[in-house]
Amino acid sequence: MDYKAILSQKGHRLSEPRKQVIELLQQSKVALTPQQIHQALQQKNCKLGLVSVYRTLELLTELGLVTVVYDPQLNPGYMLSTLGHHHHIVCQGCHKAFEFAGSNDIDQLIKRVEKETSFQVSDHLLQLFGLCPDCQQKATGGGF
C-alpha cells in the first residue's frame, strides 16, 4: 500500500512521526499498543512523545491505513491495514495476528440484527481467536 500517496490524497503529508509509526507497524507480526509503539521508537532514538503516537494512530486509523486489533484480553492494538474488506484472527498463545479476507456472508446477519433490533448498522468488527500452528504444536508437545 502506498501510504504516502494515500496521505497526500487526503490532504496530509508523510511526516517523520507518521513514517516512523508506519515502518514500525510494517515490521510487527502482532498488534502493538500505543505504549509499545512509543517504547520501540524511543529505543530507536526517535523523540516521538506518547501523545504524538496516539494522534498519529488516530489519523492513520481514520484514513483506513491502520486497523485496531484486540489481543485475547481485549486490549486494543494497531496493525497496518490492507486494501479491501478484511478481518483478523489472533493467536491466544503468541498474540500474532493474521488478516483474512472478509465476505458478504455477514450481510445476512447484519440485516437480521437490524430487523430484530431496529438499529441501523453502520459498521462491524469481526475478529477471531485461536491457536496458530506453532502454538498448537507447543500445546500438544507440552509447551503450554
Describe the structure.
The protein has 144 residues and is α+β, with helices and mostly antiparallel strands. The protein has one domain: Arc Repressor Mutant, subunit A. Helices cover 43% and strands 17% of the residues. It contains six helices and five strands. The chain has a three-stranded mixed sheet, with no helix packed on it. The protein has a two-stranded antiparallel sheet with strand order 1-2. β3 and β4 form a beta hairpin. The longest helix is centred in the middle third of the chain and has 13 residues. It is globular, with a radius of gyration of 18 Å. The mean pLDDT is 90.
Keywords:
144 residues, alpha+beta, Arc Repressor Mutant, subunit A, 6 helices
